[in-house]
Fold each of these.
Amino acid sequence: MNTMIQTKNLTKRYKDFIAVDDLSLHVQEGSIYGFLGPNGAGKSTTMKMLLGLTKPSTGSFVINGKMFPEERVAILKEIGSLIEAPAFYGNLTGRENLDIIRHILELPQSAVDEALEIVGLSEFGNRLAKKYSLGMKQRLGLASALIGKPPILILDEPTNGLDPAGMHEMRNLVKSLPQMYNCTVLISSHLLSEIELIADDIGILNHGVMLYEGSLHDLRQTAIQKGYEANNLEDMFLSMIEQDNAARKKRAVI
């Protein structure tokens, strides 16, 4: 299996603050990679670096065999993304917003209809975006990421604003994407129970440092060996974060 996204010692500093610290990440082709961590752990900053939205301080990364920044434009053509709250032109319809992206990517008109259908917005495509609910805006954001069926999807909290039924539908959709479109998904979420149901591999980040990377099965074995709670992903995650925070406090005192 090929490594679709690989970072090497990726670091982002803001003056005296290190948001991402010497990160080495490996996302396998055709997989769903759950990128986890508490607020401020560095997940969104990492995703922004992969998308060229913020410049790494040090380190490097390769996406689908292409090196950043030398092949930045070629990389971006292969990625669909949903980062933070999606922004749209409120005075345009959902369909018109997607049509702007379609023109930029030089895709056929059918790409807009396909994207709306995938996320369940076909009947609302002609409604003004400013009249969309928060959940509908999230769906439109996902449609904008999926348009053109890119081989890589980077999704930051895609279930924000969705009710339980919407979360269930989004989970099933994301889970089906690798097989349906032969794509690779890097997804962050605070809903660990959702990630546990869809992810092939997990990366756990705390204070910009990768605490664990690997399969859920191996994470469970690691948790058992270290005496963590191992009943579910949330228990393992919290145990790992708490131990790391305690170790940091101890080092700070010393």
Amino acid sequence: MTSSDAAAAVIWLTGLSSAGKSTLGEYVLNSLRISGRKAEMLDGDVVRLQLWKDLLFSKKDRDENVRRLTILGELLARNGIITIISAISPYRAAREEARKRLPTFMEVYVNAPLDVCERRDIKGLYRNARAGGIHGFTGVDAPYEAPLQPDVECRTDLESIEESGEKILRYLRTHWSL
């Protein structure tokens, strides 16, 4: 790809709740902006609360969430904005549809074991799900289909945010001449 294509990159961060997607996304976002790139981040939690409260957590709604995020990412990327999408996006098929639609799609598996995610969970979501207060919670009573061949895998239980973020930035420089 040419350097002009790099401006249209869509970086899709997928992983369990509390794996570090948003924190990692913010690191990459800030690094890109510091280097003079136009970049934005779409955080799945924020977008759900502010743009589409109509979606719940069924498989159909989760797939629709990914479809809508894909459309937003496509619009931003078409306008030269590097877009970071941070969303659990638990189903492989939905992420593959995003990959097909977005010509500069980069899948980043933000990988942390479930027990680590539960220890990090400041919102108490896992505890609530295990107590029966939340049904269909990814990783507890709903599946998470990990990427089989992500473009980058960040082991946030073993790497610092800086180490993981630099892996993403190195991929962008290597593959998209960023």
Amino acid sequence: MSTHDAEATLGPIKLCGCPDFTRTRMSRRRLLGTAAAGAGALVGAQMVGDAFMQVAYGGTPGGNVVVVMSLRGGADGLSMVVPRGVDHDHLADWRPTIFVPESTLLGADPRFGLHPALGDLLPMWNAGTFGAVHAVGLAAPNRSHFEAMEEVEDADPGSTARVGWINRLIGIDPGASPQDAVSLGSTLLPTAMVGPAPALGAYRVADLTVADVGTTPGARRTSLRTMWSRDDSVLGDGVRLAVQSTSALASLVNSAPDTVHVDAYPEGPLAEVLANTAALIRADVGTRVVAVDYGDWDMHEGVGLVDGGWMFDHLRHFAAAMKAFFTDLGSSASRVTVVTISEFGRRLEENGDGGLDHGYGNAMLLLGAGVSGGEVHGAWPGLAAADLEDGDLAMRQDFRSVLWEVMSHRFPDISGSRAQLFPGFTPENVGAMT
């Protein structure tokens, strides 16, 4: 894929001055387009624009669905969910040119306010279906994009096993089939999806099929089934599973032109991926967890001002896309929860380029069904100099505590499987779910 092709698919490539993040992004780009000959749907993962999605852990029709959105690149939680009062004064001292004025903050939480670019989501906040958890992070600071992303997606510190936490979630169900774990946009698997459980990948919902040749419907599928029936290799297993799954998903594929409502979303990297996610959820094929990647948060320079710039534009797109997503879901919205995660937060102090370098503590946003919204949850360390972790917001909630609370509340059937999902970890009660 050429640079021009990559930008057409993923949007303009911003050079943030962070080689660690640039290498990670470009390695993903180089892997786009890889596929096995003859199959339209393959085992793998996906990328659409700067958003990539994996759908995992199949369930019964009509069940709950959790969308895990990774704000890849290290989103600044202190810009998204801003402290009020004395800690806002500290923030303004550390960020004299880019701080969000307290007078512009949204929401009635007495301790925190939302960045004004999130205005499209204020009705959900006021209705109690949008909340947040602050001072979230890894057990120990890690300011490397690659290593921190690996830690977040493995969610199993110290283990040498290459099994991501979403794959472990899929594996809780011993009878999981490929359509229980679907990814759209690429055949590239993120770390969270790596492991022994099956996953089905395609670029869009409409590609979850095997293209026919000639005039006989299903001829290529039949040929592939025959060709690979005796092959006991990993590739053979993958092709047979893909053929089997595309047969089961035929009705979803056939309806895709009418059910994927891209035009209902604001233009930007989340439009296609969320439109396809909504169509998949409405199709009710047993999907329980969807992970979406909304990238380009590595703002070492040019964060911008409260009414415009990189941060404002990113948050405004997120808010408008989320509003469109819940509208697009229709009646299915009552069973969908969204939770955001990022590899780390940003430094408390701005740098000389009007940006923010890699930090530690961060914020997680939660939207939709089951959320205890309209407030910010979790212990808060404060922003006085004595409260910081080497110049960063300190961590008070391990991110796994939030993920476990979301998953166990939405999927009570996994409540006895905590050790399988997050080995060796005892979560705290955060109170972010009802």
